[in-house]
Amino acid sequence: MTLESVVICPICNTTSFHHFLTTHDYTVSQKDFHLQQCSTCNFVVTSPRPDQNSISEFYKSEKYISHSGTRKSLMDKIYIQARSITLKWKYELISKFKLHGKILDYGCGTGEFLHFMQVKNWKVSGVEPSEIAKHKATQITQSEILTDLNSTKDKFDAITLWHVLEHVHDLNQKINDLINHLNDDGIIFIAVPNHESEDAKKYRSYWAGYDVPRHVWHFSQSNMKHLLNKHGLSLIKTEPMKLDSYYVSLLSEIYKNPNAMSLISMSRAFFSGLQSNRHARKTGSYSSLIYIAKRS
Q: Which residues, including other chains, have CB under 8 Å from residue 266's CB and lie 6 or more apart?
């Protein structure tokens, strides 16, 4: 494994960082990783982190269900059920801005969202670097799933990134590439965890939303707004993903007590998610947020 450090903040371009938190890879390596915070804009980054040639090793686990698609454990089944609920919700959210057209799902995983959009008569394309996930997505959509965005010159009416941007090493370059594939009146939907949520503050180093080292960036609302503005994008709306607080809290409880997933831990997770959502009604700081933007 080759590690690299983040020396320049990708949002404000300054070079001063301070220690924010040390957390743990509970999914694959069982190693500790450090989070550093920009001293100017407060953006939080995983640093040092595996470089782009090493990071794929940290996705090779059946526990990483968005790539594996397994249904073995109770957590797998909970994830699958939550995903089935959110598919319709995502479609309805997109329909508020675009009723039909061509959609690109960047980081499409095993392809369930693309398949749902196909059924709703959208023309779909997907990008997925994981060969395992890409194979499953190809099967379910019966369409070519690309490994890299540069493999297509198509432009799209909608581009979605459902919990993907936090994984992307070349953050600014990737946003530029995505914008270049967006029609002039196109809409981009970016969902990311929010480390300023109440469940993040409660669980600290156990918070599943950090998911190091796969998550290399850790966004706040302020950070994301600055990033969008930097790339000539105008924020239309910020939408909460309220189910995430419950699922992330449940994972966080398991990380704190890995021996068993008891009714007690499930109850604690439910109330943690509930409290986080209640607090966010006043602050807007939900566990996960979708940023909906267009060209300025």
A: 250, 253
Number of other residues whose CB lies within 10 A of the CB of residue 78: 17
Of residues 120 and 65, more confidently modeled: 120
User: How many H helices and E strands in the chain?
Assistant: 9, 13
3-state DSSP assignment of residue 75: helix
| Residues in the chain, overall count | 296
- Asked if residues 206 and 267 have their Cβ atoms less than 8 Å apart, the reply is no
Cβ atoms of 115 and 88 within 8 Å: the answer is no
* pLDDT tens sequence across 27-86: 999 999 999 999 999 999 999 999 999 999 999 876 554 444 455 555 566 666 667 778
Determine contact, residues 231/172, Cβ cutoff 8 Å. yes
Return the closest-CA partner of residue 54 out of 241, 208, 216: 216
Cα separation of 192 and 64, whole Å?
Answer: 17
- Can you say how many angstroms the Cα of residue 129 is from the centroid of all Cα atoms in its chain? 15
